[in-house]
Amino acid sequence: MRPLLDAVLTIGMLVVVPAGLRLLRVPPWLPPVWWAGALPGAASLWLERGPLAAAAASVYALATVCLAVQAPIRLRTRHASLPVPVSGPGSAGPSRSPAPHAPARRLPAPVEVAVLTAMVTPAVGAVALVAERAGHPLWGFSLKILALTVAHFHFAGFAAALVAGLTCRAAGDGPLSRAAALSVPGGTLLVLGGYFAGDWAELAGAAVLTTGMWLVSLLTMAEVRRGGHDRLNAVLLTVASAVLVISMLLAMSWALGQAAGLPHPPLNWMIATHGLANALGFALCAIAARLRLRPEPL
Q1: Do the beta carbons of residue 56 and residue 77 sit within 8 Å?
Q2: pLDDT digits (tens, 9 = 90+) for 181-192
Q3: Of 76, 195, 205, 261, which one has the greatest count of Cβ atoms within 10 A?
């Protein structure tokens, strides 16, 4: 099953994240830097574990760091763009003046959380990738778990958080969209915490993430029903929504079985079903549909 996992990760590095970067406000130099790291990163997956594979993965890790540092830069820029009272001699009262580099439109805070999560999570996956390619059981985790961590933070991290932000912006600011935009990043990070805290904490993270993904599915289908999409986009969004319902049921069944000692699908079966469905049916379809709409980047 490892070749299938490597193929899924290669799609994440070379297709999903580069496509997703076109939907984010990032510096123009970042996509070429990403490609410079992603190509050796993808190659590292197909090399034997050892120094060469670890070195190639480390180049990829540098590219993910370049993306991750955009998060604090974005926060600083957003803070600087907040209106501040300005008063002076002869003024009738406080006035407000935007920063010269303020974005044209400020996103709701929950959507910003989703965007920031999308920016930083590939770097978490890259740390696991370097350790796994070096054959080092980082923090005592098996190499298989490290490899699955790489997938989790590219798809449940980057792709799901990005799609949640895009979907919630399209749906408008409301209780369901805010809940989706917050619970997808929150669930992703809770699953990470569950790696250290134990299976029940991981189950809680899976429940939060599943709730968020199902909300994204619900909002997406409501958007399709409102109309305004051509047939191909409607099909892509419908497929992405349907896949989320099924794939997250599988994730919950696995997490519950792991925590409660109940029968649950083996990891290899989860890679072939949950993992492949999320990569091809959800991430690729959802991001392709959003790209075809040519929206203003988040």
Answers
A1: no
A2: 999 999 998 988
A3: 205
